[in-house]
Fold:
Amino acid sequence: MPPEQTSLLQGTLDLLILKSLALQQLHGLGIARRIEQMTRGTFQVKPGSLFPALHRMEEEGWLTSTWGESENNRRAKYYRLTKAGRKQLETETERWGRISLAIAQALEA
Amino acid sequence: MRLINLIRKWSHRQKEEQDLDQEVHAYLELLTAEKIRDGMTPEAAARSARIELGGTEQVKEQVRDVRSGAWLETVLQDLRYGFRMLLHNPGFSSLIVLTLALGIGANTAIFSVVYGVLLRPLPYQRGGDLVVLHQQATQAHLSNVPFSVKEIQDYRGYNHTLDAVVEYHNMNFLLLGKDLAERVEAGVVSANFFDALGVKPLLGRTFVATDESPNAEPVIILSYQYWQRRHGGDANIVGRVFQMNDRPHTVIGVLPPIPQYPEENDIYMPTTACPTRSSAAFINNRDSRMMTVFGRVKPGVTLATAQADLSAVAGQIETAYPENYPKAYGYGLAAAPLGQDLARRARATLLVLLGAAGFVLLIACANVANLMLARLLKREREFAVRRALGASRVRLMRQLLTEATMLAVAGGALGLMLAPPVLSLLVKFAGQFTTRAAEVKMDAPVLLFTLLLSVGSGLLFGFAPALYSGAHVAETLRQAAAQTSSARKHQRLRASLVMVQVAVSFVLLIGAGLMMRSFVRLQQVDPGFRSDRLLSLRLSPNFNRYQTPQLASALSDNTLRSIRALGGVESAAMTSNSPFSPRAIANGPSSNDFEIEGKLAGNGNMKPSTDVTLVSDRYFETIRQPLLQGRTFTEHDDAETLKAGIINQAMARHRWPTEDPVGKRITFDQGKTWTTIVGVVGDVREYGLDHAPGDEIYLPVKQFGFGSGLVVRTSSDPMSIYPLIRKALHDLDPQLAVDQAETIERRQEESVSSPRITAILLGIFALLALVISASGIAGIMALAVSQRTQELGIRMALGQPRTSLIGMVLRQGLAVSLSGTALGLIGAVALGRLLSSMLYATPPTDAITFATVSLLFVTVATFACLVPARRVTRIDPISALRQE
Structure:
């Protein structure tokens, strides 16, 4: 259990999902674990937030999914980025950079 | 693209659901496997994974919510489910649909009339710019003085804000065809009349300026209705020549089937074709006032600007002719939108009826809300289960609102079917107030109103139950029966709904009671004469054959002699204005200035005025109007003898309060001729029972020639003698047209038909409201008893007498009814004032009405409470206690 839970803003969750899929395709639990790992346990994604987000992003055309075999031979649905998804990742990353910079500056001022 | 996507998704819905299910389960399995790997036992891992997931159904529902087209799917699902629920309970559903249909149907019908008469734009080009001009003499309390030719010329010449000033008056003429003389109603208009209204002819042409020049050949235009009725829609009518006023008149056109304003006419003619209007004496006399005047405001000019401009013209006229417009009269001019003016007499009644119908719908909605709440008690478990399975509260509220709206729309559809027969009655009713009633129809705006009304009432009565849905999931699930604490909250809400019902129905009942009382009072009014066995008819001789007063007077004598000679006729007389004639009621008394000998008003001062009626000898004896002083007219009161006049009691009291009026002389022409008062007769309400008698002078008809009204008192049914009278008149002169034969009794009845119908309609609404409210009271009482069965059983087992139990339950119901009544009392006092203009001799806070209605209400409420309360006596304490 992480010491504190940060509530996930929708935009942030989208960005984290896109980022987690940047290098490889993953299934739902895989994505959740990857996000935990990337944020060192700061963000824990609940299925109730994860699945609606995945389906929404798939409808937007950023993700595509296929059924495949998991590492321990179970059927699971794998998500990966589409071309539009990569582009979205770039834009979101760039936007986040601007925001975090701005906030950091604001807090230092 | 999006749409295609939507459709594709829609068609793959089944597969997608399966996918989602598998995906969530796969997640669960993977999570479990992970936990086992971390060292948990399989059972503990499965349990922990399920808790972490938070319920597969909830997760799936959340995914469904974000999908595109989710709302559509939900709505369809709600509709399907709602439809099943409603079919599942057909009695309940049809009761609600029927209640709503009555409410919505009544509102639709009345709104159709309100829209057609008060709201719809006039069916003329730039109808909104048309104004009607009223000359006023505020100090003399005259608000609608007709115009003279000189005045029309002034307003036409000196205004800056109107682009057309048109004149109109109505006359009836004898149209001589091949076989018989026919009386036609003629609209006499200025040549620009149809152009100003933007009316294009169906056949031929409308008037042009040259038709109105002094030496123009007389031309006429036929109305569509007259053309159809009398000439069978003859396509070759244009060019046909008719004899009228001893001159040939050529038909130049036929009007399209438009509603005619300000009244329905058979034919139209230019002012130059009307013998009265075109005579030099009439044109040159500034005081010969007869015409109605309309104007069309120039584009972009506001009514206020036009009013200011016309008032300025009025000021110029007043200054220029002080003889004709004495300062003391307060001469002025008022311009009113034509549409508003035409509906003036209908407005109050229609709005009251619309308000009443709205109230009925409100009560119906409250009742339906109550029924839905009652049923919700039974569905509480269902809703709790659905909540537990992942349905959000909003979703459940939406489900209830969907069901309510479905019911309301069904009610609206049925209401639309009920509306037309009611509407046709209402149109006839509205026709008594305004010619615009002819335009009433159920068209798009009315249908839109009905749709909005249906959806609106659905939301209204669905809202209360929706608020209470699924609020107490855990509690409900734990309870075996549906008797939760929310049931008590329901009870409170239901009681307040019933209270509102009671209050609103009380207000309606008071309204209906006041109207009925006013109507009864009106009917009991003594008209001042005996109206039974009295026949009235209209005579129209071809005046060109009786041009001298001697000839006309001889015709009067001959007419009366031949009628009086008939068997079955007790007496007969002539008059210029028979009592309760529709025209007299619509126009009211005339106002003729006079001066009393020895009390001349002098220039610039206000003269007394009076209504004038011309009557023949034996008139007062025929209608049985009592002679109080002096004598009545004889056949010898004609143009040759002393000019005699008989005044009514009101005038005697008003002008000679301390003296004997008999023998006094008055003049109508500044002392040129004098009329001697020879008698005083009782007051007669000939302009309507609600019209208090004003000053009136009767002059002998033979001094002027001929009266167009004939009144005949018969010894048996007047209508059975009418054919004999008709034949006798025809024998006397075949060109003497006879029409409008009706008994005065019937006219008297007709004169009060609009207050009667208003009272009846309000009565029906109020009764409907009372029944609905009574069933509402009975409903909550029944529920209260069934919910308290256990408590009542215990009390009974402990020895409380049944009568005291009934009293206990009764008190609860009566408390609701009485507080509703108190609320209604306040409302009735506040709203009663709105009715006051429609009430005759009845104050809006009439004590007897209030007392009667309150008593009726409390009686009905007691019965409504008593029926379910008596169920208490049927409670068996043993089974009541075992119920748990």
Chain B has four domains: 2-68, 127-298, 346-524+753-882, 542-735. The mean pLDDT of chain B is 86.
